[in-house]
Amino acid sequence: MADFIKIYEENPNPKAIKKVVDVLKKGGLVIYPTDTVYGLGCDITNTKALEKIARIKGVKLDKANFSFICHDLSNLSDYVKQIDSTTFKILKRALPEPYTFILPGSKTLPAAFKKKKEVGIRVPNNNIALDIVKALGNPIISTSIRDDDEVLEYTTDPELILEKWGKLVDLVIDGGYGDNQASTVIDLSKDEPLIVREGKGDLEIF
Q1: pLDDT digits (tens, 9 = 90+) for 136-147
Q2: What is the DSSP letter of 117?
Q3: How far apart are CA 204 and CA 206, in angstroms?
Q4: How far apart are CA 53 and CA 61, in angstroms?
Q5: Could you give the CA distance from residue 206 to residue 133 in angstroms, rounded to a whole number?
Q6: How many CA atoms lie within 13 A of 159 on its CB side?
Q7: Could you tell me the pTM of the whole model?
Q8: Max CA distance (Å), the chain
Q9: CA 105 → CA 170, 184, 187, distances in Å?
Q10: What are phi and psi of 161, to 5 degrees?
């Protein structure tokens, strides 16, 4: 059964964050809170861990559309091709908030993503997720924890998440109740911003 640890979003405990990072560095899978729904993630540099998540989601790794959870935009060039000033201004204005931006992938993507022409970039407005990524030193991947219920699309209660996912992952973070609305996905890889999925987040800023 997965470890279950409580972390407070307002002031994440550094020891608890270190525990999460240690699990990620060993190739573990972690369920963690974001500013939208709870996410399932691992270290983007660990191919075996990525393959485990792809199997859980029932997709092939090279076909999976995982988002990268980043701490900020400072290392964007490691994962994204050079972008123009207009695109960068949109990112600066919109982040950290509940948006996923599709951008053209760079040639320096981690091995598992080398064939990807585009990548999804997230900088969530959640201190737990941001502190994990900062302490790890590189992004973690994110894929939403979906619910089988026809009415509830996403599970919001961490204890219920543990009950359902505890045998599939190594650690579940209790960061309080999650949201039940996913991020808004915006494609910035073309000439004009294109809203791919309307979710949480104000569309007026685009």
Answers
A1: 999 999 998 876
A2: S
A3: 6
A4: 8
A5: 27
A6: 0
A7: 0.94
A8: 47
A9: 29, 19, 12
A10: -65, -45
